[in-house]
Specification:
Blueprint lengths: L40 H4 L1 H31 L5 E4 L3 E4 H27 L17 H18 L5 H13 L1 H8 L21 E3 L16 E6 L9 H8 L1 E5 L8 H5 L5 E5 L11 E3 L4 E3 L6 E3 L5 E4 L8 E2 L1 E3 L5 E3 L16
Antiparallel strand pairs: 1-2, 3-4, 4-5, 5-6, 6-11, 7-8, 8-9, 9-10, 12-13
Length: about 350
């Protein structure tokens, strides 16, 4: 469309000069200026402004409720539960609740801020000339003045309901991220320091699933044992056996070099953790003549006749020993739990 097709009264030269510059030979493309400002209904009607204020406060309040709902859903909904949502189908109930509540919380904060800016904050367009990057004292003073003016025009001091609910919504929504950290896994507490072994717990052969008697352990043999009551079909079997698995070896008492090892044994039968103290691999190789056990992963070697101390490889400390004895029925039993954590070293090892 050419300029000839535009009505004369709409051309820049024919417009109200109060809102722009006049085109001439030197400046053929004059700045048309800004259109006259049109007031919003909230600018001239306090009742409309109050309605907008309540709408913004409602959105911020809804955000707070959604954040609380996020936390409540995380605590109350079982992670295995599923629900049917049309048209998606069956989905995980916890994921659906977390996504819905967090989405509502974030959306309401954004929608409230936009509605606040569109209806209550000043919408007068201001043209400001560009200035050098280095701020002069006059510019800094102007920025401070503009900031104060903006704060005044936003009515954040006068609209206390909006201000308070906005602060509440913005303060609460980060709690969603804090709660998500809890989903990294169960808290370890002191579980790594304890196993299923305790006083009176029978030593059960891993292969036969029968309690062990001293006569079942021959000199030079290697037997693997688990605590009484731990079955492979148990839900926590893998977690518990990873801490409680035992190696049982019978050594001539005269060949046991470590005094405490001899005291904690029964007729030369010693029980040590099967879990290597390097990276937690199961130890399974035993040399009868030297009483050395070898971890097949990284070749850490332990001397079972000398407190299971490390004689080769990257392991950092000896295997923990379990104190054992015999009950009235003649079965081998534990006389307590390990006195130190089993497996690799970790920061809680005092």
């Amino acid at each position: 469309m050419s300029s000839q097709d535009i009505p004369e009264e709409n051309l820049p030269a024919a417009q109200d000069h109060a809102h722009g510059e006049v085109a001439d030979e030197q400046h053929p493309f004059a700045d048309p200026g800004l259109p006259p400002h049109e007031h919003r209904v909230q600018d001239i009607d306090e009742k409309a402004a109050k309605r907008s204020e309540r709408a913004v406060a409602f959105l911020f309040t809804l955000s707070m409720l959604a954040t609380v709902g996020f936390i409540a859903a995380f605590v109350a909904i079982d992670h295995d539960k599923s629900v049917y949502v049309f048209p998606i189908g069956h989905i995980n109930a916890l994921n659906f609740a977390l996504g819905l509540t967090l989405g509502v919380a974030l959306f309401c904060i954004g929608a409230g801020a936009v509605h606040w800016a569109r209806t209550l904050m000043s919408d007068v367009e201001v043209a400001d000339e560009r200035h050098p990057i280095e701020a002069s004292p006059e510019v800094r003073a102007k920025v401070h003045a503009d900031f104060k003016q903006g704060a005044k025009e936003s009515a954040i001091g006068r609209r206390k309901l909006i201000r308070n609910t906005m602060f509440g919504a913005v303060a609460l929504v980060p709690l969603s991220g804090v709660v998500l950290l809890r989903d990294l896994g169960p808290l370890p507490e002191d579980k790594l320091r304890h196993t299923l072994w305790n006083k009176g717990k029978l030593l059960v052969n891993m292969n036969t699933n029968e309690p062990l008697r001293p006569s079942d352990v021959a000199v030079g043999s290697l037997t693997f044992a688990k605590p009484e009551g731990l079955e492979e079909h148990d839900e926590e079997f893998q977690n518990e056996i990873a801490k409680a698995a035992l190696m049982i070896v019978r050594i001539q008492p005269d060949n046991i070099k470590d005094k405490r090892e001899l005291e904690w044994s029964h007729e030369g039968i010693v029980a040590y953790s099967k879990i290597c103290t390097h990276v937690g691999c199961p130890i399974s190789l035993y040399e009868q003549q030297t009483h050395h056990v070898l971890c097949p992963c990284h070749q850490s070697t332990f001397d079972l006749s000398d407190g299971a101390r490390v004689i080769f490889g990257p392991a950092g400390h000896a295997l923990p020993q379990l104190r054992i004895g015999v009950n009235d029925e003649g079965y081998l039993e534990a006389l307590g739990d390990f006195e130190e954590p089993v497996g690799p070293a970790f920061w809680e090892r005092g």
